[in-house]
Amino acid sequence: MSPQKIRVLIVDDSAFMRVLLKQVLESAGDIQVVGVARDGRDALAKAASLRPDVITLDVNMPHMDGLTTLHHLINTNPQTRVIMLSSWTKEGAETTLRALELGAIDFVAKPGSSSDPAVEELKEEIIEKVRQAARARVSARPVPTPPKSPSPFDWGPKVGGLQNLILMGTSTGGPRTLSEILSRLPGNLPAGIVIVQHMPPTFTASLAKRLDETCPVRVEEAAEGTLIEPGKAVIARGGYHIDFIADAGGEIRCRLTLEPSTARFRPSVDVMFENAMKIYPPSRIIGVLLTGMGNDGARGMAELRRRGGYTIAESRETATIWGMPRAAYEAGGVDELLPSHSIPDALLARVVKK
Q: Which residue of the set 198, 268, 315, 340 is catalytic?
């Protein structure tokens, strides 16, 4: 008996995109498009009758936009698995991030043209994301609404300089998990944080802005020369790897680079780990690998642990996709496997201990 195909409902107001997505998805062999809808109202009716495994949902539609449709879909069935289709614009990025907070599993940026290279890139990405979404753990918990200013911690005697460096890597499900973790870290955290979230350009700037507005620690997108300092989280810019340099005063700053060009992702979690260990003592680094598909970060985190760093991976019970954390665990790169809600306390315990 052949394996059951993944049943997909396509929701898009563009006839061209509906046809393109159907062709792309059904070319995979293990995916069946069971229906198409041209707006949110149509989508709600067809989702109820067809009960698809995964829904691809356009952000901008007439009558009922993507966010409103997503809200109704998840309220009706919290186990709904949705992939958003968004434009590359700043407005599209901000709307997509809100969709991820509401419970969308992932997103795909629409191709800028109908050229063969653009369609081929879309094909590879959306097929893989539909497959992952069909297997994803879906949380029914409400979206966290973090306080902006939790009580500061008294760390005792103040020591100058960057005493601890926390490196975080994530992909699918990351924005929601990052919000959960950063919202529970105090603004006077005695550690700098650098984050690689697999996202294209424009989206990382919007993510940094969103987190900065809702979390006690300062959050900004990396730029050339951005200072790594206590109480601040820096998110690697989409389209660039993050590197580090020590300036004349011994402070650590960011560099943006396109090398190595062979890395599958840019930014890459593995590249972040490798570059950080060249400039900062591994024994003062805490590596954290969160939800995401694939194995980016597994090699780098295993090396960090081997060289004396401390490593934490999100456990299966809370990870939307237990891919990256699992790869690190299987590579021997994990000191602690923890659910996402336990990671902030573990980080605080380590930076105080150090």
A: 198
Secondary structure (3-state) at 192:
strand
Told to judge if 171 belongs to the known catalytic residues of this protein, a careful annotator would answer yes
Phi, psi of 21 (to 5 degrees): -65, -40
Catalytic residue among 58, 270, 296, 315: 296
244: number of Cβ within 10 Å = 18
Determine which one of 12, 13, 171, 243 is catalytic: 171
Report mean pLDDT in 10-residue bins for the chain, 354 residues: 88 93 94 97 97 96 93 94 86 90 91 69 90 86 48 48 93 96 96 96 93 97 97 97 92 96 95 97 97 97 98 97 97 98 97 75
First to last CA, the chain: 56
**Full-model pTM:** 0.90
**Which domains, from first to last, does the chain contain?**
6-135 (3.40.50.2300), 165-353 (3.40.50.180)
Q: Which residues contact 52 (CB under 8 A, 6 or more apart)?
A: 7, 8, 9, 34, 35
154 contacts: CB under 8 Å, gap ≥ 6: none
